[in-house]
Amino acid sequence: MSLRLFHRLDNAKTQYYHFKAVIVAGMGLFTDAYHLYSITPIMTMLAVALLGAAIGQLIFGRLGDLAGRKRLYGLALMLIMAGSIGCGFSIGTPKGYILGSLGFFRFLVGVGIGGDYPLSATIISEYANKRVRGTFMAAVFSMQGFGILASSVVTMTVCKIFSRIYHPSTIDPKPKEADIAWRLILMLGVIPAVLTFYWRMKMPETARYTALVENNVLQATEDMERVLDMSHCQIAEGCFLQPSQWTQPTSSYPLFSKQFFLYHGRNLLACSTTWFLLDIVFYSYPVLQSKIYFKDQLDEDTAFDAAFKIARLQAIMACSSMIPGCIAAFFLIDRIGRLIIQAVGFVLMAIVYFSIRVPYDKYRQHHPSALFIMYGLTSFFANCGPNTTTTTCHGIAGAAGKVGAIIGVLMASLGTGVTLIIWGGVCTAGMVATSMFTKETKGTSLEENE
Q1: Most C-beta atoms within 10 A of its C-beta, which of 134, 261, 264, 389?
Q2: Is 241 inside a domain boundary?
Q3: How many angstroms separate the CA atoms of 173 and 188, rounded?
């Protein structure tokens, strides 16, 4: 009965609930991106959030398999909300205590973000049919771009309001004024989380988890009836088993056993390696972007004006490259496959990074617009490629990615020229890892991959 249930899931027509699930799961990544990219004025806190995200992905990825996706989905969001509010109320004197408090709550936010990543990806992949599973995943990950855009708009708005109120045109704003501004920016990130929480709690457990792990195919069938335009007779069509027979044996091998590595070792290695390499570049770029485009120009600005300029640049990049890249992946991923767009994305990123580095000073002095376009291309190829396709074995692989992100953030202090060469080499290694280890899953069901 469970195999027939999965067949109906894989071949169900795209309908309202699928889009609702995309929005609910996508709002999680929207919130995640908002928090990771709204920390521009205090970038040293980013590494703390990334460490929390790595831990959260490991813990929530495993607990999601043991206790169910739905049970953990709300908890991850609650951690994000609690951490967001805590960031805004970080207190203490002297300054070091405030940073310690902020670091703790950023870590808490990171754990929630880390928990949200594998759960969102797993839920949408288990709800989607096999024809458009990649498309739905791309739609969910596109919300990262909108989250970055939202954090940039909020930062610009807050900075403009405070600039006009306090008129810091000749002197830097007072510590109290700037202190209120960054707290407000971080706390506003709780709004999308609150709006999403109700709908997450209303979502039923995924039918695949209920049938395979909880051995309750009847409940899985009832859940499908409730959310999909499909009757009980349609789901069980052609099956004459009694409800008492609707069971599915659980997996007989534990995590990290010989059987686990036999069936999933290649996928886990491929996804973890490529995600690790991608995030070295993906998360170190925001740290360097102000140095690349503004160099020493921000030293003469007030804190509000400097934050406004950085946020404006981030918003332009999101609109011109990140979101278009995700949209392109939306149309391509189920047509030409994950393997091709991931490999091509890595190759083109490497080419652009090496091309920028060779005449970097010339670009910087005489062709700044060309420099902006080329950096935009790397962001486009990342999102129409490895940032969207690295979604197998999500908890462990995502944690590997965040370890790469921490390394990338720390690497940004090496200098622009050296970092560009390293980025190009990392992308080349990502292409090699993709070609050697990654398996194409286009058009296949989750059970076929198993």
Answers
A1: 389
A2: no
A3: 21
Q: How far apart are CA 208 and CA 154, in angstroms?
A: 39
- Is 78 domain-assigned? yes
Question: For 383-410, what is each residue's pLDDT tens digit?
Answer: 888 888 765 567 788 888 888 888 887 8
Chain-centre distance of CA 111, in angstroms? 13
Q: By residue range, what is the domain housing residue 376?
A: 2-205+256-442
Closest CA to 27 of 113, 89, 107, 100: 113
Nearest of 131, 189, 127, 126 to residue 155 by alpha carbon? 189
On whether the CB atoms of residues 284 and 409 are closer than 8 A, the answer is: yes
Q: What is the pLDDT of residues 275-326, one digit of tens each?
A: 889 888 888 777 777 666 766 566 666 777 778 888 888 899 889 988 999 8
Q: What is the DSSP letter of 189?
A: T
* 3-state DSSP assignment of residue 427: helix
- Contact between 72 and 133 (Cβ < 8 Å): no
Phi, psi dihedrals of residue 204, rounded to the nearest 5°:
-75, 165
Number of domains in the chain: 1
Whole-structure pTM value:
0.81
